[in-house]
Write a structure and sequence with these properties.
Layout (H helix, E strand, L loop, with lengths): L11 H12 L9 H13 L3 E4 L2 H5 L6 E5 L8 E4 L14 E2 L4 E3 L8 H20 L6 E5 L8 H4 L10 E8 L4 E3 L1 E2 L1 E10 L15 H11 L3 E2 L4 E10 L9 E10 L2 H22 L2 E10 L2 E2 L5 H13 L4 E3 L6 H7 L3 E9 L8 E3 H16 L2
Parallel strand pairs: 3-6, 3-7, 7-17, 8-16
Antiparallel strand pairs: 1-2, 2-6, 4-5, 5-18, 8-17, 9-15, 10-13, 10-14, 11-12, 12-13
Helix pairs in contact: 1-4, 4-10, 6-7, 8-10
Length: 378
């Protein structure tokens, strides 16, 4: 990354120390109280107006979404910067280990939590760097959602009437810093129960209706994996039966559908429903299908200002810019639904959702520098 006087210089040592501090805070989904309190305190010290909403009451969790607003000196609406507060399991007792080559890992028995402490730390350091530089800057809004890892629960119920931003940068993407996702999918989850009839497997098997057999037959008819260029289907969990000498009366399977085309995701769900109902009827079983729509697909065009600003900042910093798309989904899906045009930025997280998760000092520095540039760029 090239040094430039055009953008504020971040303090790498301070950034890494804050990243370590954030990683050490337990914040598994729905248990973000300590993280929320820490971030509220940090934002107040940086001069932000701070607010926490009532999302905790909606979900019976520990904390709501945390908002902040810092006035700017440049005209125009503020920019929204976002990174989620929660982590996946195993996420209790996390500690960041800084290796001599700058690589950052956990101790090996938990996730690192760079998803999304890397994003949070980069935002906080960028704001500090901008404030210390005295450079004119856009107004800054931050939103740190709770429970993003649980299908974007926090951002789903966020109080969007509080936000003034029209453009957003969500720091929540794996891969090299300089990469941004412009497109994310519709995401549907489903739970399907096959209800048969129990009977003794040895004395009267003919009197039973085998729910496992019915579910298995349906699964063989459901196309899974990449079912097209835009769509994936997966059945990831199945459970049922009580004992080997009982014809099983109940089986439940759970899965998901992701597609860049909203209508394609809904069509896949309807096809799965029909297959299961038809198969169950053939066995004399009953089927119950429950599906939930978690996120809506979106696409941001390369010519849009939110993308062009990111490209200019990367070019100025000498960071290779890569525009891509991901089937992952993020809080940005919700921002788009509420009229805020945004993209998702890589922020120094790799092999996330595993104990092999890692980041690096150089990637954190690069990300914070990009965010600082975005804040001061027109």
């Amino acid at each position: 990354m090239e040094r430039t006087d055009r953008y504020p210089q971040v303090n790498t040592e301070r950034l890494v120390e804050e990243f370590k501090e954030l990683v050490a805070i337990d914040s598994v989904s729905f248990h973000e109280r300590r993280m929320a309190d820490t971030l509220k305190s940090k934002l107040l010290k940086l001069g932000f107006e701070v607010y926490e909403d009532g999302a905790a009451g909606v979900y019976g969790s520990e904390a709501g979404n945390v908002y902040g607003f810092l006035p700017g000196t440049l005209e125009g609406p503020p920019l929204l910067l976002s990174a989620h507060m929660d982590t996946v399991e195993p996420g209790w007792g996390k500690r960041a280990v800084i290796h001599p080559d700058g690589r950052i890992t956990s101790k090996g028995d938990t996730v690192l939590g760079s998803d999304d402490a890397a994003g949070i730390a980069s935002i906080l350091e960028a704001v500090r760097a901008v404030s210390e530089s005295g450079q004119p800057h856009r107004g800054i809004e931050v939103l740190f959602p709770m429970a993003e890892e649980a299908y974007g629960k926090g951002s789903t119920v966020a109080e969007y009437e509080r936000l003034r931003a029209k453009e957003a940068y969500t720091l929540d993407l794996s891969g090299p810093v300089g990469q941004a996702s412009l497109q994310e999918p519709t995401f549907v989850s489903f739970s399907i129960e096959f209800v048969g009839k129990a009977s003794h497997a040895g004395f009267a098997p003919e009197e039973g209706i085998n729910a496992i057999a019915a579910a298995a037959a349906a699964i063989t008819r459901i196309r899974q994996g990449r079912v097209g260029e835009e769509t994936t289907v997966n059945i990831g969990k199945i459970e049922g039966g009580k004992a080997t000498n009982i014809v099983p009366a109940l089986v439940r399977m759970e899965g998901e559908i992701r597609s860049y085309v909203h209508e394609a995701a809904l069509a896949q769900m309807e096809q799965i429903r029909r297959i299961c109902e038809d198969t169950a009827a053939g066995f004399g079983a009953v089927v119950r299908v429950d599906s939930r729509l978690h996120m809506l697909a979106y696409r941001v065009e390369k010519k849009e200002p939110v993308v062009q600003r990111f490209r200019r900042v990367c070019e100025t910093l000498g960071v290779e810019c890569s525009l891509t798309r991901t089937l992952g989904g993020s809080d940005n899906n919700c921002f788009i639904q509420h009229g805020i045009r945004g993209i998702v930025l890589s922020c120094g997280m790799n092999q996330v959702h595993s104990t092999e998760e890692f980041s690096s000092v150089s990637e954190l520095e690069r990300c914070a520098s990009i965010v600082a540039g975005l804040i001061v760029e027109d």
